[in-house]
Specification:
- The protein is of the alpha/beta class.
- The chain has twelve helices and nine strands.
- Strand 5 (about 90-95), helix 5 (about 100-110) and strand 6 (about 115-120) form a beta-alpha-beta unit.
- The longest helix is centred in the middle third of the chain and has 30 residues, at about 170-200.
- The chain is globular and about 60 Å long.
- About 45% of the residues are buried.
Length: about 290
């Protein structure tokens, strides 16, 4: 049984809900809040205490975990939580917030006396549900041991990058990793769209790749989703589009042209316009065809 901590989870969408359930299962006292109350209320049967406001959720919490859409959403939620925050509590910020947003989040933590840990995660719905996320973390040494039971509950491994979360070292690595993930996703979708357009059996493409250096489990997973017409969201198009924009902005700030990611962001935009925004990002496949 894990050391029991009181953990407030702000944001209980696909990822946050899975994290909260794993925290409940490992013996933590979990409070949850979500802007859409029904998403938080669904966790009551798992043992979580449902809060009406962010401030109620964080009152008395040892750890505040945020998993929200982006940096501004995280700042809005933690600001609303302000009256209930305890100086000395740890803020485990797992949202993919973008480099520029981290400074504002870290500044809020400093003013509130919180130990700020920037900790975006790699993984989608299935690894989140099984507690197998990869956590990329940057934060003070004194916060690491207290967070052990929380990090063990949500992830298979934690990579510590810096003792100062305000450097955005973890977020920078997350954006680099997501660049590769999005490239693979678009590559799979566009390849299968071309196969359809040319009248090529998509299975023959997969057979040609099988066992070679360019084969991979991720290709198989996204291809299976497309071929089965199953776009149950593991990572939604809308969220992937947001991450693509953050990557392009981060590159531009450092003089790096992210041409492929920018083109991918346009594919996501088209997929959203076609009505696929809430579906899995494999729906980039549909961007290959006329509306």
């Amino acid at each position: 049984m894990a050391d029991q901590l009181t953990v407030a989870v702000l944001g209980t969408g696909i990822m946050g809900a899975a994290m909260a359930r794993n925290l409940c299962r490992t013996g933590h006292d979990v409070r949850v809040w979500n802007r859409t109350p029904a998403k938080a209320e669904a966790l009551a049967s798992d043992g979580a205490r449902v809060a009406v406001t962010p401030a109620e959720a964080v009152t008395g919490a040892d750890v505040v975990l945020t998993m929200l859409y982006d940096g501004p959403a995280a700042l809005e939620a933690i600001t609303a939580a302000g009256p209930g925050l305890r100086p000395g509590a740890i803020w485990l910020q797992t949202t993919t917030a973008g480099v520029e947003a981290i400074a504002d989040l870290a500044d809020f933590a400093r003013r509130q006396g919180l130990a700020f840990v920037d900790a975006p995660v790699l993984g989608t719905k299935a690894p989140a549900e099984s507690g197998q996320l990869l956590v990329l973390a940057a934060g003070p040494e004194e916060a690491r041991e207290p967070l052990t039971s929380v990090l063990d509950a949500i992830g298979r491994r934690t990579i510590w990058l810096d003792e100062n979360g305000a450097t955005a070292a973890a977020t920078r690595l997350k954006l680099v990793c997501n660049t590769w993930v999005l490239a693979l996703t678009h590559g799979t979708g566009e390849t299968l769209a071309l196969a359809k357009g040319l009248g090529v059996d998509p299975q023959s493409f997969l057979d040609a790749m099988s066992g070679g250096a360019m084969d991979c489990d991720y290709l198989r997973a996204k291809a299976t989703a497309i071929l089965n017409d199953d776009y149950t969201p593991n990572f939604a198009v809308t969220t992937a589009a947001k991450d693509a924009r953050l990557i392009v902005e981060a590159g531009a700030a450092e003089g790096v042209r992210m041409d492929l990611t920018e083109a991918g962001a346009e594919r996501f935009r088209r997929a959203e316009a076609q009505g696929h925004g809430d579906e899995d990002m494999a729906a980039t496949y549909f961007a290959g065809f006329a509306d």
